[in-house]
Amino acid sequence: MLMKILILSDVHANLTALDAVLKAEQSFDRVLFLGDAVDYGPDPAACLDRLADLEPVWVRGNHDNAVATGADCGCAPAFRRLSRVSREFTRSVLRPEHLDLLRTLPVERAVSVGGQDFYLTHASPADHLFEYVSPTTEPQRLARAMEAAPDRCGSSSSDTPTVPTSGLSGTKQPSTPAAWGNLGTTIPAPPTLSGKTVISASRE
Q1: Which of 54, 89, 106 is the last residue of a domain?
Q2: Domain range enclosing 88
Q3: Burial letters for 80-90: b for 16+ Cβ neighbours within 10 Å, e otherwise?
Q4: What is the distance between the alpha carbons of residues 181 and 32, in angstroms, rounded to a whole number?
Q5: Which H, E and C letters describe the chain, residue by residue?
Q6: CA atoms of 69 and 79, how far apart (whole Å)
Q7: C-alpha 40: how far from its chain's center?
C-alpha cells in the first residue's frame, strides 16, 4: 500500500514553524519524528502536545535527553550557553508528563511503515545522540555507522537536509546559506552502503 510519510525533526520548541509545516503538509498517513522536540524555542509544552496529537513514531534527540535527564546536550560551543539557559526555562514550563515522555523515548527504533523498514535515530546507529552524519561525511565512516541499518535509515544529525541513496548523492536542500556549498555534492558510496537510503535532517 502506498503511504505518504511525513518525516520531522529538530522542532526545538518552535510551534510557529511546526504549525507551518503541518499546514503545508496536510495530507499524510504517518509521522516519523527524529528527535529534538524541545530546547532553544519558546513553546516546548505546546510543541510536545502537538507532536503527541500526531501519534508519531519518534526517538529522543540530544536536547530532549538533556532536558529530561540533566545531561549535557553535547552541542557546539557556540550554542552551549543558549542551550543551558533555554533548558532551565524549558524544564520550568513542562509538565511532569512531558518530562516522563522525553525520558522514556527510545534513542533508536526500527519500524515498518507501508511495507518499508525504517531505522530511526537522532544521530547515527553508531552514536545515537551525538554523531553528525552529512553529505560530506567520509564514505568509510558513514558505512561503519550504517552497518546495522536496514534499507532506510532516518537520522537528523546533519546541517543539510539530505536524502542520499546508494550513491550518496540525491536531493539536498541546504538549511543555511553556508550549507549551499554542499548542493550537488556527489560522494562515491562504499559497497556496504549499496541499496541503502539515509534520510538526514538538520540539527545543532
Answers
A1: 106
A2: 5-106
A3: eeebeebbeeb
A4: 28
A5: CCCCEEEECCCCCCHHHHHHHHHHCCCCCEEEECCCCCCCCCCHHHHHHHHHHCCCEECCCHHHHHHHHCCCCCCCHHHHHHHHHHHHHHHHHCCHHHHHHHHHCCCEEEEEECCEEEEEECCECCECCCCCCCCCCCHHHHHHHCCCCCCEEEECCCCCCEEECCCCCEEECCCCHHHHHHCCCCCCCCHHHCCCEEEECCCC
A6: 19
A7: 15
pLDDT digits (tens, 9 = 90+) for 120-170: 888 877 787 887 766 666 666 666 656 655 554 444 544 444 444 433 333
* Greatest alpha-carbon span in the chain: 49
Side by side, the strands of the sheet bearing 170-172 are 108-113, 116-121, 152-155, 197-200, 162-164, 170-172
Regarding whether 126 and 101 lie in a shared domain, the answer is no
Distance between CA atoms of residues 67 and 96, nearest Å: 12
Could you tell me if 137 and 100 lie in one domain? no
Nearest to 145 by CA among 103, 181, 84, 192: 192
All three cell numbers of 70: 540533566
If you search the block for the grid coordinates 524549558, which residue do you land on? 90
Together in a domain, 80 and 123: no
Using 50, 70 and 90 to split pLDDT, how confident is the model at 181? very low
Please tell me whether the overall predicted TM-score, pTM, comes out greater than 0.70 for this model: yes
